[in-house]
Amino acid sequence: MPEAAVLSLVTPAYNQGQYLAETIESVLAQDQLGIDYLVLDDGSSDSTLQVLQDYTDRVAWEHQPNMGQVRTLNKGWGRANGKYLAYLSSDDILYPGAVRKLVEVLEADPTIACVFPDCDLIDEESRVIKRSVCRPFNLDQLVVDQECYIAVGAIFRRSAFEAVGGWKPELRLAPDREFWMRLASQGSIHFHRESLAGYRMHPKSISYKDVSEETSREYIRVLDDYFAQPGVPPRIAARKEEAYGKATLVLARNRFRSGDLKRGFALYAEACRLHPPLRSATVKLRLLRNVVSKPARVALSAVRSVLKPARA
C-alpha cells in the first residue's frame, strides 16, 4: 500500500487551458515533500487536454465527461490519501513555499481544522492588481453577513472533511461557504496573514449571466440547514432574522442585476422587514449601483464593439 501523502491537492479544470500550465507549475515548484497532486479535466473543449498531456510524466491527471466543479472536487478528494486536503482552481496560483508554511501551521496546532493564507488579486498576465485581499475568518460574518474571505490556498484536515462530508452538489453559488460553515464545527479556521497565492481575475472568472431567483434562493436554503442543526452558537442563533434578511438582500441584489426591478424592490422590502437596519441610505446606494450597473455594462460593450478596429 502506498505511503500516505502529507497533502492531497485537487485541481478541477474546465476551459482554462491558457492558465492551467502556470497553475500546475506553481504546484510543482512547492518545496513541501509528499504532495499528491491530481488534475481532473472536467470535459473541457479548449486546450486543457493538450496542456495536461505535456505533464503526463509529472502530474496525475484524468479527462472525464463534464460533472461540474462540486462533483469533480468530491471525486478527487474521495481518492485522496493525504493527511490534509486542498484544492486549487485551474486559473489560480500558489506562491513558492505556500504549502510548507500552511502545513507547518496545521502541524503546530491540532485544534486548527483549516488554514488559509492571504492572497493577491492578479490579472491575465499574473500582474498584481491588488495585494492582501483576504481577512480573518469570522463565523458570524459568514453565516449572518453572507461574507466569506477564504480564497485561494486553504488547506484542511482530512479527518475534519470526513467528519462533515464534502461539498453539496445541489449548490451552484455557495458550495464553498456552506462547506466552511460545517467545517468550522471541527475546529478553528486560521488566517495566515502572509500572501501566499494569486487569485486570478479575468473575463471568464466573472459570470455576467443572469442568476435566477430560484438559484439565488440557495442562500436561504443554506441558512435553513445551518439553523436546523444542533449546536448553533447562541450569539449566531440570536441573529437569525438578521441572517435571513441579509440573505434576502442578496436575492434582491441579483434581481436588480438581472434587470427585474419590480421583483428586486419586493425582495428588498422583505429583507427590510426581516432586518429593519437594511433600510439605511448606505444599503440603498449599494443597491442603486446594481440597478444601473447592467445597462452601463451593456452600453459600454456596445461602444467598445463600435470603436474596436477591424482585424485585417
From TrEMBL:
GO molecular function terms attached to this record: hexosyltransferase activity
Transferase listed as a keyword: yes
Keyword list, A-Z: Transferase
Keyword Transferase included in the entry's annotation: yes
Glycosyltransferase 2-like domain location: 8-164
Protein's UniProt name: Glycosyltransferase
Organism: Ramlibacter agri
